[in-house]
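Bug #2210: token dump truncated for Hydroxypyruvate isomerase?
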Amino acid sequence: MPRLAANLSFLYQELPFEARLAAAAQDGFGGVEFLSPYEWEPGWLAEQLRAHGLQQVLFNAPAGGGTLAAVRSAWAEGWRGTASLPGAQRQFEYGIELALDYAQALGCSRIHVMSGAHPAQLAHGGSLRQQWLRRLGWAAERAARRHSPGAAPIVLLIEAINQQDMPGYWLHTQQQALAALQEIGHPHLGLQLDLYHCQMTEGDAQAQLLRGLGSGLLRHVQIAAVPGRCEPDAGAVDGPALLRQLDAAGYGGWVGLEYRPRSSTRAGLGWAAPWLRPGGSGAAGPQP
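Reproduced locally. Full output below:
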């Protein structure tokens, strides 16, 4: 049965960050994800997760920056990943090592590695693709070497993001993503399938989900409505139907709720009730 994770960069925005963890546990979530953990010390985050019985299931590698201070300001400065950016090798390597440090401290086995955004004239350059593939392969090897005995392997994920929301984003189709993963063929790389972005770019989220499941590379799913990027209880992305499809396929991984609630987060969770833990707070299970 798929397990729901609250994306704290989108949900519970009516609360300060510290209170979002408590609210997610109270509402029956077993896991959380958010874009960037780097604003906080890893020890403090780990303690907060333990206190609320939550599992950190996903976060992003840094959007940019070659120092911790630069990492913390990178998103606001317009960085959207460095994996395919010319001249960003140092920032990419620093970001991967920092992300692996946080993953080990938080017990998180999924890291999203953003590819970067380019001006339109660079969007289809073959040399950029080869650079992107080389960097992903290097990062996967670093994840493999950092694996601690007894811990779940850390898998680096790539995700296609639609270019309406993120103009110039390098990786924007499932075909690109699957071709890259198959070409590199590393066990520490996997697919993050965001059905909102999928529907926006390619349509037919259900067919794209089947394709992802069939590839054997699917490691994380995210959902939101189209249009509106709100609760997936109406429109082209049918959240309950897609969760039932995942259940029928035997998917036991996490599904991140990466949407903007129409009102308060809690008021909009009725559609997800069958997949939330009755009574809230409790221990999260291990990640497959």
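Output looks complete on our side. Residues 126-145 form the longest helix (20 residues). Marking as cannot-reproduce; reopen if the truncation happens again.
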